[in-house]
Amino acid sequence: MFTKIISLVAIGVVAAGCSTGVRVSGLRCEYLQNPLGIDVGRPRLSWEMESEKRGEMQRAYEVRVGSEPGKGDLWESGKVVSDQSAQVAYGGKELASGQRCYWGVRVWDRDGKVAENSGWWEMGLLKAGDWAGAKWIGTGKLVGQAPMLRREFAVSGAVRRARAYVCGLGYYELRLNGGKVGDHVLDPGYTDYDKRVLYATYDVTDQIREGKNAVGMVLGTGWYDVHTLAVWEFDKAPWRAAPKGIVRLEIEYVDGRKETVVSDGSWNAGVGGIKFDSIYGGEFYDARLEKTGWDEVGFDESEWAGAVVMDGPRGKMVAQEMQPIRVTGEIVPRSVKEVKPGVWMVDMGQNFSGVPKLMVKGKAGVMVKMRCGERVKEDGTLETSQIDVFVKRSGADQVFQEDRYTLKGSGGVEVYVPRFTYHGFQYVEVTGWAGKLGVENFRGEVMHTDVPSAGEFKCSNELVNKIWMASRWAYLSNLMSIPTDCPTREKNGWTGDAQLAAEMGIYNFKPAAVYTKWMNDVEDAQHPGGDLPGIIPTGGWGYGKGIGPAWDSVAFHIPWYLYQYYGDTRILAEHYGVMQRYIEYLSANREDGVINFGLGDWAPYEAQTPATITGTAYFYRDALILAEAAKLLGKNEDARKYRELAGEVRGAFNRKFFDAKSDSYLSGTQTALSCALYQGLVPAGHEKGVFANLVNSIHARKDHLDCGILGTKYVMNVLLDNGRADLAYAIATQTDLPSWGYWIKEKGATTLYESWKDVDSRNHIMFGDIGAWVFKALAGIREDGVGFASVVIRPEVVGDLTSASATYDSIRGKIVSSWRLDGGKIYLDVTVPANMRGTVYLPTSDPTEVKESGGEILMAEGVDSMGNEKGVAVYAVGSGTYHFVAPQR
Ligand code: RAM
């Protein structure tokens, strides 16, 4: 990327007045904070070192793991001289099911000062035998009201600790003594239930009491029992069966006795208010059928039958080691209007994934219908034709994103939140209510996999801020235990969309645990011959030559990003076989050295790029990633073989598609040119020529993109990496077709769309890499090395921008880059966390005039990145906060 690297100088200057204490924070186990239910045998630990001191590094660490806080009886790493602070694998005694492990880490700084901190993790149920006695139970009925299962049990003494291990398919809600257990919704995460089934672990110590207790479970259909029409035939999924659940409660008394309560034939089964639930359709709830007190002691079960013991799913039970889906926020509607007599429209003001919440007071039997969607028609009513096409096409008489609530007439305000469905929507069309409705009657419950935020961004251009914000909403709306394409029409784990959005996700959130889980799903989905489906999980649809490498490459790119951004080599090791089988599959299916099948630059504007170009280019990148992974894993023979294969593919690619005379690639589109550059396929000496052609083709479009989802990611990154961030910025700030700004300005978008012309879904993330680009380009925060051992801060001062700032919570700690222009000067504030190095590229007209924190500057030199750029001062820095001031360029 940068051809001239400046010699490093160690910087150890202590800014006056700063505290110099060293601290350790951010302790994680398998990317999670103090997790319950880990079933990885050797969990990996990470922490962050903190210090205000410049140039601070971790000289050594020591990890102790014990059965009690402060003890090291399970493992002591000893003092390890290393700056490693992530992916440190537990190396002690074999751990048992349910075992609580307390760990502490100690770090030594450069002066030998020590800091420490502690955390814990708890093992899940490691062996199938741990579920002994627990049976899968339900009502045995395929379609009908949501099953409710209950049982009472006695607790004979003071409880020291209690755990609930639970899974309910498709979805469950577990209840104890009248209250919900945990805060998960739409649990468990979606998997191929024939391969793998996720269970959750809850600490229920506080919900259990001495004496009589009641446990209950409600089951939804979810992805396990798709009984309504689905886009890709999930109603025929091989795993499909009637809802069922399994529970194991483990109670430990203060006096050491242990007791377990398990789901079995002794439970009773009934039904209540949920009359219908469907992942696509919605939920119907009749409050008159509610069974008040069913989850409490003393409920009259005389009308309930015995629970039916059922065959369990075929998949193995594994711990759900990722953040669950939660309700993460509540939206107050912007307006509620009567658009036609009796037809009310609720405008949430934000497109998102979740469910509407209804709060009304009225007579028993009144049914309120809520249909959710992303658009309204001219007459003000709901428009769903862009998202319910597959239902309409089939002619099926089926509801879509529709919730119904029938009042019980309690006399008070009745509150209804659908439990076993979710929708993508901004608008809710409400009918069936005779009276007036207002903002006070509705809320929007925002739902998604609850990944912590990692990045914040802000700049002086409001449009760019809005695009960034829309990308975040689109990403989260499409993170529902798997990355999805849209929260409406499909809700599917489209691999191409996920592959393109992964870096955006990593810059903005902490999705490593979700991706780790989803890579298992990818592995589960692969055919023995290497073929991968376009949607994961799949019920069988999407194999063969229809989709192809641009989508399937997710099996390479996501593990590689986890390695690059978090230093995760285990993910490469674990899924090495998937990559290898896929590469062998592509090798066997090339024609004349190239790939002639699959999807290409999907959802283009006008220019069409042959899929053979982008597909073959992914083949090349994938072979290289595999070769690199092989090298890292010590498989040298494989490394050589796949590097050679990559070379062959590169040769074939250029032979077939490259015209050396014009420095162009077949079709000459922005996507073709940027693809060759982005994937590193351009023959040496021709990079500048191809790049010039790309720039010209962008100018020919009046500085607009003319790409689909693949080209959009390539063009923006290639421009940035070749010194034309200004042109990328011009593209990013357009407001006419095709552009992100068009969606924002013309359509009032609050999420990203599926198509430039806005004819499809309004909540796709596949054009979303812009949400990573703003961090890389405008704030200039770029990973440099592996796992942020070092960072490059290289803000691009472009266009009308007068300021930009971002923070990024990397695996090694928080990075800050913030700049502003003022009075002919550029002010740049940079924070590099302890245990990280950085290189700062400061744009200035005069590198000799740079001041830093009012003090002497340590090193400045012009850098030449493409042989045509001057006016950048470059500093090698250690950790610390730096305030640069320099003449504006
Ligand atoms: C659509 C999906 C997805 C895309 C595929 C090819 O059905 O919504 O975004 O990856 O097509």
Work out the strand percent: 25-35%
Classification by helices and strands: alpha+beta
Bound molecules: alpha-L-rhamnopyranose
| Cα shape | globular
Helical content stands at 10-25%
In the predicted model, the low-confidence regions spanning at least 5 consecutive residues are 1-19, 860-869
> How many separate helices?
16
Give the radius of gyration.
28 Å
Number of strands: 46
Cα distance spanning the termini? 22 Å
Query: What is the residue-mean pLDDT, rounded to a whole number?
Result: 95
Largest sheet: 10 strands, mixed
Question: What's the arrangement of secondary structure elements?
Answer:
Elements: E1 22-29, E2 36-38, E3 44-51, E4 60-66, E5 75-76, E6 80-81, E7 88-89, E8 100-108, E9 114-123, E10 137-138, E11 147-155, E12 159-169, E13 171-176, E14 179-180, E15 196-203, E16 211-220, E17 244-253, E18 258-262, E19 268-271, E20 274-278, E21 282-286, E22 305-306, E23 308-309, E24 316-319, E25 325-331, E26 335-340, E27 343-360, E28 367-373, E29 375-376, E30 382-383, H1 389-394, E31 402-406, E32 414-416, E33 423-431, E34 442-449, E35 455-459, H2 462-477, H3 495-508, H4 512-525, H5 549-552, H6 554-566, H7 570-574, H8 576-588, H9 611-632, H10 636-657, E36 658-659, E37 664-665, H11 670-678, H12 687-700, H13 709-721, H14 725-732, H15 740-747, H16 770-779, E38 781-784, E39 790-793, E40 803-810, E41 813-822, E42 825-832, E43 837-843, E44 851-852, E45 872-877, E46 880-887
Parallel strand pairs: 2-9, 15-24, 21-31, 39-43
Antiparallel strand pairs: 1-3, 3-7, 4-5, 4-6, 4-8, 8-9, 10-23, 11-16, 11-19, 12-15, 12-17, 13-14, 13-16, 17-18, 19-22, 20-21, 25-34, 26-27, 27-32, 27-33, 27-34, 28-31, 28-33, 29-30, 35-40, 36-37, 38-39, 40-41, 41-42, 42-46, 43-45, 44-46
Helix pairs in contact: 2-15, 3-6, 3-16, 4-6, 8-9, 9-10, 11-12, 11-13, 13-14
The structure holds alpha-L-rhamnopyranose.
Alpha-L-rhamnopyranose binds next to helix 3.
